[in-house]
């Protein structure tokens, strides 16, 4: 969008403020706002800020950085803040060098922009399309505490008889127990209308929604899935969609979480990524008559992701909680192989995507604690590495396997490599396998080292604290 059109929009819609959004290494959104009348000067000069105050971004002695708005991302904030009566224009930004105004190496959004430039430079393809699947829980309320002498968590869901909110009585008998929630119908699907509201707002921002439904978790687990979205815009759209879901839940006195495993022994929240590459408008993954009608490029791309699967987990599953979801028995793939319609595979080829226009595959391991700019860029680079090297997969049992490998005998099952068992294992794998990320100068060693250091702080925070389960196991030993 041109500045002139944005200014016309500000005047016609009486927009009072502009809100600039940017992502840190941790994947969280940060923001800074200013009166709409100042927009033109901000577009030209950007907004200076202290990068040392953003985790993992900059040292305190050289903290000066600048946010540069990307006008193509400008949109009216679709949700009215109840504390501010005026309308707000939102614009996404890149974190830039204070002198050059060029995106810095550790800016996640700039990583995705460089990944797109690298894709084009390879000549393999010029565009990639992605479908992110948004799995999340909507709870009536959540209380958690983490002090020296008080630790614990209480979750309430009015859909599940086992965890009713305080003072809630199931007068109409609609709450369920001991069943799965997958595609649960009305009136048991309490938040159907809320999902429709979320989807309507998402679509108002020109992000096409494929469908929405109740997910497997009985305690109010949901899913919203988009149509194919172009990279790197899909990274921006992922942040926008997560924001809409959270804020709509809050507006209705509820709370939404994308946490991979918020509830023990129930299905967790993943973020599956469907991936397709095109060159000159043609789907390069399509080859009628090949395995699952896939081209050599598609097979090489999948092998690239699988051979780098352990180090990729550091970006696609970057939380200690991620690995509580990645357990056998919950449709959360832990084995690095591919197969047609196989939900036990890390890479699944959808059976219904059987035309040139739809042929793609789905990476099923990731979750929404990831920084989408880093996770999708890393997946793209891993796949391109596979194509460039024409990986044959020798020495790796990548498949295809079209049966449930978790039903195999243990000896045979052990022939397929597994993802790391925890975040520390993923970070160690990234330390040993990162060269593919340096292609095209997309990532650099400083970003990778800073990311690893940031995540190791999470591990320390979790490991150093006693948990309620440890109290149950060891208090009376």
Can you walk through the features of this model?
The protein is α+β, with helices and mostly antiparallel strands and about 475 residues long. It has two domains: about 5-105, Ubiquitin-like (UB roll); about 125-135 and about 190-210 and about 220-475, Glutamine synthetase/guanido kinase, catalytic domain (Creatine Kinase, Chain A, domain 2), CATH 3.30.590.10. The chain has 13 helices and 18 strands. It has helices spanning about 5-10, 40-45, 110-120, 190-205, 235-250, 295-305, 310-315, 320-325, 370-390, 410-415, 425-430, 445-465, 470-475; strands at about 15-25, 30-35, 45-50, 65-70, 75, 85-95, 125-140, 140-145, 150-155, 210-215, 220-225, 230, 255, 275-280, 280-285, 340, 345-350, 360-365. Strands 7, 10, 11, 12, 13, 14, 15, 16, 17 and 18 form a ten-stranded mixed beta sheet that branches. The termini are far apart.
Q: In a few lines, what is going on in this structure?
A:
With 477 residues, this protein is of the alpha+beta class. The chain has helices at 3-12, 39-45, 108-122, 192-204, 233-251, 296-307, 309-316, 322-325, 372-389, 410-413, 423-432, 445-463, 468-474, and strands at 15-23, 29-35, 47-50, 64-69, 75-76, 87-97, 127-139, 141-147, 150-156, 209-214, 221-226, 229-230, 255-257, 273-279, 282-283, 338-340, 347-349, 361-363. The longest helix is centred in the middle third of the chain and has 19 residues, at 233-251.
């Amino acid at each position: 969008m041109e500045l002139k059109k944005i200014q016309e929009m500000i005047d016609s819609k009486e927009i009072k403020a502009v809100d600039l959004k940017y992502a840190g290494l941790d994947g969280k959104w940060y923001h800074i706002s200013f009166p709409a009348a100042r927009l033109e000067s901000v577009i030209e000069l950007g907004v200076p800020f202290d990068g040392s105050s953003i985790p993992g971004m900059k040292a305190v002695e050289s903290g000066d950085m600048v946010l540069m708005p990307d006008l193509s991302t400008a949109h009216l904030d679709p949700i009215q803040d109840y504390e501010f009566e005026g309308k707000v224009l939102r614009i996404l930004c890149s974190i830039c060098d204070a002198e050059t105004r060029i995106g810095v190496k550790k800016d996640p959004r700039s990583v995705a922009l460089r990944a797109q430039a690298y894709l084009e430079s390879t000549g393999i393809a010029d565009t990639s399309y992605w479908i992110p699947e948004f799995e999340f829980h909507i709870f009536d309320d959540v209380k958690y505490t983490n002090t020296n002498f008080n630790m614990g968590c209480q979750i309430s869901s009015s859909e599940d008889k086992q965890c009713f909110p305080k003072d809630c009585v199931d007068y109409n008998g609609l709450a369920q127990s001991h069943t799965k929630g997958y595609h649960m119908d009305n009136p048991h699907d309490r938040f159907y209308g809320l999902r429709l509201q979320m989807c309507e707002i998402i679509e108002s921002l020109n992000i096409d929604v494929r469908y929405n439904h109740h997910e497997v978790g009985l305690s109010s687990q949901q899913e919203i899935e988009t149509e194919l979205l172009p990279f790197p815009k899909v990274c921006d759209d992922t942040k926008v969609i997560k924001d809409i879901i959270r804020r709509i839940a809050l507006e209705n006195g509820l709370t939404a979480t994308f946490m991979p495993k918020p509830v023990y022994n129930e299905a967790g929240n993943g973020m599956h990524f469907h991936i397709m590459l095109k060159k000159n408008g043609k789907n390069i993954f399509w080859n009628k008559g090949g395995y699952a009608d896939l081209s050599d490029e598609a097979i090489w791309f999948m092998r690239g992701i699988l051979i780098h699967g352990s180090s990729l987990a550091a970006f696609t599953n970057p939380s200690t909680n991620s690995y509580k979801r990645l357990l056998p028995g919950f449709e959360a793939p832990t084995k690095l192989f591919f197969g047609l319609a196989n939900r036990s595979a890390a890479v699944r080829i959808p059976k219904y995507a059987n035309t040139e226009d739809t042929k793609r595959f789905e990476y099923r391991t990731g979750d929404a604690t990831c920084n989408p700019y880093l996770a999708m860029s890393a997946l793209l680079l891993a796949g391109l590495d596979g194509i460039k090297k024409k990986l044959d997969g020798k020495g790796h049992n990548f498949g295809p396997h079209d049966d449930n490998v978790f039903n195999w005998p243990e000896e045979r099952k052990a022939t397929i490599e597994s993802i790391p068992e925890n975040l520390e294992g993923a970070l160690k794998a990234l330390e040993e396998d990162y060269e593919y990320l340096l292609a095209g100068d997309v990532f650099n060693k400083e970003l990778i080292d800073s990311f690893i250091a940031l995540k190791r702080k999470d591990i320390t925070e979790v490991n150093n604290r006693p948990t309620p389960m440890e109290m149950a196991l060891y208090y009376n030993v």
